[in-house]
Design goal:
It contains 2 helices and 7 strands. With 89 residues, the protein is an alpha+beta fold. 15% of the residues are buried.
């Protein structure tokens, strides 16, 4: 798994209820971290499995009680949105 070392306020992890020392075990059913000596990067798996609107299922081991839980997480878009109007003189 991948250990969460920090959760930023307002981030996708914070909105999902993740906390420091929780461990992400799988993304959309696929293990992350070192699996049979090969690294499966968490960020790559988020990109691979997120829906077009940014939702992905994450299996997490809760640091508070050691239980596994599946959480829906909505990731932030890497695309910027600009809104407003333009006036030409």
């Amino acid at each position: 798994g991948v250990l969460i070392v920090q959760v930023l306020n307002g981030s996708a992890a914070a909105r999902a209820g993740l906390e420091k020392d929780d461990m992400i075990v799988a993304v959309n059913g696929y293990q992350v971290g070192f699996v049979n000596g090969q690294l499966y990067d968490c960020a790559s798996e988020f990109e691979r499995w997120a829906t077009p609107d940014g939702w992905v299922r994450v299996l997490v081991q809760n640091n508070r009680n050691g239980r596994l839980m599946t959480l829906p997480v909505q990731l932030e878009s890497r695309l910027s949105k600009i809104s407003g109007s333009i006036a030409l003189n």
